[in-house]
Amino acid sequence: MAFHVLIFSFILINFLHYSQLGCGHGLPGIFACLEGAAAVHFQDFNAEVLRCLTIPNANANLSQTSQSTASKDTTLIVETEVKYFAGDWSQVHQCLPHVYSDGKDADSSLRQNPVYDYDIILMAETIYAISAQQSLYELIKKCVKRPGGVTYMAAKKHYFGVGGGTRQFLSMVKKDGVMDATLVAEVADGSSNVREVWKLSMKSDSKS
């Protein structure tokens, strides 16, 4: 849990639009809700994960906060838009509301919501399978706000037995050449797998 929440030491949260990809328990997204995000959209491949894990966890945390806020005398209450989306990374952009569109995407006409893009994309432990890394990366490029949007990726340096890890993913990002990657934090205790937090952002001259 500390590894996931570490991301938020570097983020100004209020009034921004978030997406958490491969959300699972949804801890980073829930934290963004608690800190006043304008919108947090949770995505996972499995609808069952959302129904049985993410939604109950979000409801348990956010309902307590709503009750606490209601009992206080406050002049500003930030109502976070919380939504849940299930689907494969290669297709889920078709139903996500805040997706970048250059007018060439045939699916953009199917979305009725305005296109704001996501200010911040969050993901943790999503790059363990090499076979899924490309579709995840393409989804990030479709979703992140430009200019100014960023993606925070928390992951292990190596996922032994499955082949993925930050090095493989970052190699793909570097080869593509449209995003910059900056190491934000490294968690290493000398006895277990090294964990890292990376910040990805679109290059200023990128048209992709």
TrEMBL record:
Enzyme class: transferase
EC number from the UniProt entry: 2.1.1.85
Location(s) in or outside the cell: Cytoplasm; Nucleus
GO CC terms of this entry: cytoplasm; nucleus
GO biological process, one term: methylation
One Gene Ontology term of the molecular function aspect: protein-L-histidine N-tele-methyltransferase activity
Similarity remark: Belongs to the methyltransferase superfamily. METTL18 family.
Matches recorded under PANTHER family: HEPATOCELLULAR CARCINOMA-ASSOCIATED ANTIGEN, HISTIDINE PROTEIN METHYLTRANSFERASE 1 HOMOLOG
Protein's name according to its UniProt entry: protein-histidine N-methyltransferase
Protein species of origin: Linum tenue
